[in-house]
Amino acid sequence: MSMLPDIASQASQRGREAGVEYLFDQILARPCSEQEKSMLLELIDANDQTLPQAPENQWTYGTATFHPESGAVENFRLFPRFHANRWQGLRDDLPDTELDWASLTAVGGHPGARLDQTVVRRWTAFDECRVRVRGHLKHPSDQGNGVRGTIVVRGNEKIGEWTVKQGEQETRIDDVLLQPGDTLDFVTDSFGDISHDSFEWKVRIVSNDERQVRANSERHFSSMQPRPLTPWEQAAQALLLTNEFCFID
Predict the structure, then answer these.
(1) Measured CA distances, 158 to 97, 118, 174 (Å)
(2) pLDDT tens, 98-119?
(3) Could you state, in order of their start, the residue ranges of all structural domains in the chain?
(4) Which pTM was predicted?
(5) How many degrees, rounded to 5, is the angle at CA 208 between CA 206 and CA 211?
(6) What is the 3 state secondary structure string of 158-214?
(7) 173 and 200 in contact (C-beta within 8 Å)?
(8) Which of 2, 27, 92, 107 lies at a CB distance of 3.0 to 4.6 Å from 239, suitable for a disulfide?
């Protein structure tokens, strides 16, 4: 519901107990009992320590500062706008004043000129799993010096790197152990020259026996940036789903 973020934001600013009282007042139009207050506070505390449920194929799209030598991905920022079937900066036409040519589509994209305008397609694991990565990185232009594609685990562990110029390479990684909340970043930078850097990089994340496709970058491409609910938003959602809110006696 569109009302949820505003209610939860207001509640979170009022302090813990006053916030719970505000949620009950705004959603159920009544005071809460001490038991109800205690139960909701327990829910908020628990959700502050645990990872919210989300689809296993959750992708997010953004830019970051990339350090090619170490493989570190820093200051990951979600793209602010989806336009013309791509994630990009705020301007309609590229280059953007802040993000330059940085953009991502269902099949590939374009990096910005600088290493702090590197494009990142990020997948987050929501359970413990061992996976393999299967994909192809392609630089279709017959000009330019190509692009560099790097796979980084947990934001700082480089597990694969490929430079492609006027051609394509298979991008294969085997046996990656991920814990809940771990990220797989598919990082593409301009390799020092922004000219003719459109690229294609389609990837699949599969189980170690390759029988289960856990994520497909093209098929699961989305115009929405997934965002888990905050603990206060989850508390508001819990009240919105109660019979007391949904039904009238």
Answers:
(1) 30, 15, 13
(2) 999 999 999 999 999 999 999 9
(3) 3-52+228-246, 59-216
(4) 0.73
(5) 60
(6) EEEEEEECCEEEEEEEEEEEECCCCEEEEEEECCCCCCCCCEEEEEEEEECCCCCEE
(7) no
(8) 27
